[in-house]
Amino acid sequence: MGTSIHRVVYKEKHGGWINKVEYADKPSSVHYTQLAAIASAKMMLREQGGGTLIVRDLNGLIKDRIQIYPGKLITVVRTKGGYR
Fold first, then answer.
1. Residue 5, SS3?
2. Residue 15 domain-assigned (yes or no)
3. Residues 39-75: pLDDT tens digits?
4. By three-state DSSP, how is residue 6 classified?
5. Does 28 reside within a domain?
6. What is the rounded distance in angstroms from the CA atom of residue 80 to the CA atom of residue 77?
7. How far apart are CA 25 and CA 84, in angstroms?
8. Residue ranges making up the domain that contains 28
9. Count of CB atoms within 10 A of residue 22's CB?
10. First and final CA of the chain: distance in angstroms?
11. Long-range pairs of 65-72 with CB within 8 A, sequence gap ≥ 24
């Protein structure tokens, strides 16, 4: 079994929501909303064989961890506290 991939979604200081592999130098994508960044990260994780999505809030604290399984249908977003 391969190594689990971790993706992180967080707010950039210049305004965009970043979707990137944890510890990567460059983001995979930048979005106007947190919702769009989460949807993009979930799709990428599913296509890459699954892993964990870490969602950070505006203060940089972990808001949610979502386990994504390979090849399975996933919900677009969990509305715990409401994403922006």
1. strand
2. yes
3. 999 999 998 889 999 999 999 999 999 998 887 565 5
4. strand
5. yes
6. 9
7. 25
8. 5-68
9. 11
10. 35
11. 66/42, 68/42, 70/46, 71/46, 72/46
